[in-house]
Amino acid sequence: MNNGDTGIPAWLDEFRMQVAAASPRLAECFTGIERQALRWSAAVNPKPGTVADHSLEPVGVGTDLTADQRTCVQAVLSSPVYRLTQLGDEPLPRRVSLVIEF
């Protein structure tokens, strides 16, 4: 089930909201840093609500993530699993990219 003819999966809005809700936990990965923005791409398997094959890229900052920050962010964005209810008959998993600010 897609949103109209856009090809956007119906569960994407639920996914975005749940990722946004993780912002306070993500901020804990960057103690001492005022503001952070990341471009996160991952393969999302909506039926079980899992993500894999993470790609993280700082947005608007000149430094890369440390290994500890990368591990922390991936852990926060992977658990708990996402509860996506508006599932269709599309092939799974699907790659999704989001910019997250916290």
List the helices and strands and how they pair.
Blueprint: H1 12-21, H2 23-27, E1 37-45, E2 50-58, H3 67-78, E3 94-101
Antiparallel strand pairs: 1-2, 1-3
Strand content: 25-35%
Please bin the fraction of helical residues: 25-40%
Strand order of the largest sheet: 2-1-3
How would you characterize the largest beta sheet?
3 strands, antiparallel
- Report the mean per-residue pLDDT as an integer: 86
State the separation between the terminal residues, measured CA to CA. 31 Å
What is the number of helical segments per DSSP (H or I, 4+ residues)?
Answer: 3
Task: Return the domain count.
Answer: 1
How many strand segments? 3
| Poorly predicted spans | none
**Which series of helices and strands comes N to C?**
HHEEHE
What kind of oligomer do you see? single chain
Shape: elongated
Q: How large is the radius of gyration?
A: 14 Å
SS content category: alpha+beta
